[in-house]
C-alpha cells in the first residue's frame, strides 16, 4: 500500500513540476521564436536588396557583411531549437516504453527546464542583436536606393546558391573598388593588392568572379592570368614568354590606352626574386594605370603589396549550415521534414566549413538520395571518421585533405575495404576528367581497387575547375573470430 501511494504521489509531483515549467517557459520560448523569425525575414529583405545592387561604399559593405553574419547565426540558433526539440520528443517516446511514466516525466522535467532556459537565452540574444542591427540600418536603406541595380536571372534559392559565389559580396566589391580607383597623377609604380587565405578558402573563385565582372572588363584593355606553371623558372625570358602566351587568351577590347590587369594566382610560394622579375617586366611592358592582384596562402606576399592586403577566412559554421541546408533540401521546406533537418544539421557540424567542396558534394548527395536511413548512415560514417582523427591526431580530416596529407577515409558500404586519400588537384574545364566520382566510392558500392583518380567535384561557377582526387582502394584483412572448442575433459580452448 505504501509503495502504491508513493508512486501516485511521485506521479502527481512530476506532473505538477512539468505543468509549472511548461506554463512559464513554453509561451515565452514561442514568443521569442516567432519574434526571431519575423526579424530574420526583415533582415533578409535588406540583404536581398543589397545583394542586387552595386555598392561601392566600404562602410556599407561592412554593414551588409555584419547583417548577413547575424542572419546566419539567427537561422542556426532557430534551427537548433526547432530540430533538436523534435528529436527530443522522438526520444521521449522511445524512453516511455522502457521506463515507468513517473520517472520519464520527472527526468524530462528537470533536463528540459535547463535546456529551455539555455535555448531561451540564445534565442533572445540572437533576436536582440538582429533587431538592433535592423533599427541601426535606417540610413543604410535610404542610401542603398541610390546605388544601381545588378542584372540577375530568376533563380530559386537553391539554384542561386549553387550557381553563385556564396557570401563574398563585401570582398568582391572591395577588390573591384581597388581596381577601378584612379591612381595618383604622375605615379610610376604599379598598384598591387595581395589576397591571402588558407587552402580551399576560395581565393581562385573570388579572383575569377572579379575578372568576369563587366565593370572590370570595361576598365582594363587586357587581363592576364598567371598560375604556378608560369613561374617554373626564375628566368625573365620565360616569364615574358608566359605573359606573351597569355596574350592570346586574354580578354581584350579596342581601347589600347587603358591599363592591364595582371592576376597572379598561385598554390605554391612566390619567392622575392621571381616577384621582382615579374614586377619589373610589368612596369616595362604595361601602362602605368595597370594593376596587379596576387593571391596566395602565404602571408609573405603581403610585403609585395602597395595597399592593405585582403585576408580571406573560412566561412563560419552558421554560414556553412545555411548553405548546406539550402542545397541539401533543394525546393523542399526543411520545416516539413524535421527529422531529416536534424540529421542534416549533425552532418553539417561534422563536415565543418573548412572544405567547401566537400560540403557541396555531401549536400548534393543527400538531395539526390532523400531517404532517412541513407542520411543516418552518412552521419554515423562521418562521426566515426572525425572522432578517429580528432582523438588520435587532434585534427579534423578536412584540414589534412586541404594540405594533401594522407587520410584513411574508408568506405561506408564496404567495411572490408579502405579508401586512402593522397591528394587533390584541379583541371581546367576543357580537360578530360575521370568518369567515377569519389562520393560513389566512399558512400556507394562502386567497385574499384588500387591507386586511381576519381572525380570529386565539377564547379558550376568561375573558374569552372574540375577537382580530381588521387586515392587508393585497399582490401582489409578480415578478422576471423576464433570459436571456442570444448575438449573431451570439459576444458575450453580459445
Automatic annotation (TrEMBL):
Gene source species: Urochloa decumbens
Protein name: NB-ARC domain-containing protein
PANTHER family: NB-ARC DOMAIN-CONTAINING PROTEIN, OS10G0134700 PROTEIN-RELATED
Entries under InterPro entries matching the protein: P-loop_NTPase
Amino acid at each position: 500500500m505504501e509503495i502504491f501511494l508513493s508512486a501516485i504521489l511521485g506521479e502527481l509531483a512530476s506532473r505538477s513540476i512539468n505543468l509549472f515549467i511548461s506554463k512559464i517557459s513554453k509561451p515565452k520560448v514561442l514568443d521569442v521564436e516567432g519574434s526571431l523569425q519575423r526579424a530574420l525575414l526583415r533582415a533578409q529583405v535588406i540583404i536581398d536588396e543589397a545583394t542586387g545592387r552595386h555598392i561601392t561604399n566600404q562602410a556599407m559593405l561592412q554593414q551588409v557583411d555584419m547583417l548577413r553574419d547575424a542572419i546566419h547565426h539567427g537561422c542556426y540558433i532557430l534551427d537548433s531549437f526547432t530540430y533538436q526539440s523534435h528529436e527530443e520528443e522522438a526520444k521521449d517516446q522511445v524512453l516511455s516504453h522502457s521506463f515507468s511514466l513517473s520517472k520519464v516525466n520527472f527526468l524530462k522535467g528537470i533536463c528540459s527546464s535547463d535546456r529551455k532556459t539555455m535555448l531561451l537565452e540564445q534565442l533572445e540574444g540572437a533576436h536582440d542583436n538582429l533587431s538592433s542591427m535592423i533599427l541601426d540600418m535606417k540610413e543604410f536603406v535610404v542610401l542603398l536606393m541610390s546605388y544601381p541595380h545588378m542584372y540577375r536571372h530568376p533563380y530559386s534559392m537553391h539554384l542561386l546558391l549553387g550557381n553563385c559565389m556564396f557570401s563574398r559580396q563585401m570582398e568582391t566589391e572591395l577588390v573591384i573598388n581597388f581596381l577601378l580607383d584612379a591612381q595618383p597623377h604622375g605615379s610610376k609604380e604599379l598598384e598591387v593588392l595581395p589576397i591571402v587565405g588558407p587552402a580551399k578558402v576560395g581565393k581562385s573563385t573570388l579572383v575569377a568572379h572579379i575578372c568576369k565582372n563587366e565593370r572590370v572588363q570595361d576598365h582594363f584593355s587586357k587581363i592576364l592570368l598567371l598560375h604556378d606553371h608560369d613561374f617554373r623558372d626564375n628566368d625573365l625570358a620565360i616569364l615574358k614568354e608566359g605573359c606573351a602566351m597569355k596574350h592570346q587568351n586574354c580578354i581584350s577590347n579596342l581601347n589600347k590606352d587603358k591599363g592591364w590587369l595582371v592576376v597572379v594566382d598561385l598554390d605554391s610560394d612566390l619567392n622575392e626574386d621571381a616577384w621582382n622579375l615579374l614586377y619589373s617586366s610589368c612596369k616595362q611592358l604595361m601602362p602605368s594605370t595597370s594593376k596587379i592582384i596576387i593571391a596566395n596562402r602565404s602571408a609573405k606576399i603581403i610585403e609585395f603589396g602597395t595597399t592593405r592586403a585582403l585576408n580571406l577566412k573560412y566561412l563560419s559554421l552558421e554560414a556553412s549550415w545555411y548553405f548546406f541546408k539550402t542545397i541539401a533540401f533543394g525546393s523542399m521546406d526543411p520545416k516539413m521534414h524535421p527529422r531529416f533537418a536534424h540529421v542534416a544539421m549533425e552532418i553539417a557540424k561534422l563536415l565543418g566549413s573548412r572544405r567547401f567542396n566537400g560540403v557541396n558534394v555531401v549536400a548534393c548527395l543527400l538531395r539526390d538520395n532523400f531517404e532517412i536511413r541513407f542520411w543516418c548512415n552518412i552521419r554515423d560514417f562521418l562521426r566515426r571518421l572525425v572522432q578517429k582523427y580528432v582523438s588520435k591526431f587532434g585534427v579534423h580530416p578536412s584540414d589534412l585533405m586541404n594540405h594533401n596529407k594522407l587520410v584513411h577515409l574508408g568506405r561506408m558500404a564496404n567495411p572490408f575495404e579502405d579508401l586512402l586519400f593522397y591528394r587533390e588537384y584541379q583541371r581546367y574545364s576543357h580537360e578530360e576528367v575521370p568518369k567515377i566520382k569519389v562520393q560513389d566510392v566512399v558512400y556507394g558500392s562502386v567497385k574499384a581497387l588500387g591507386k586511381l583518380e576519381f572525380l570529386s567535384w565539377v564547379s558550376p561557377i568561375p573558374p569552372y575547375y574540375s577537382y580530381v582526387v588521387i586515392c587508393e582502394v585497399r582490401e582489409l584483412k578480415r578478422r576471423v573470430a576464433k570459436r571456442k572448442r570444448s575438449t573431451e575433459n570439459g576444458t575450453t580452448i580459445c
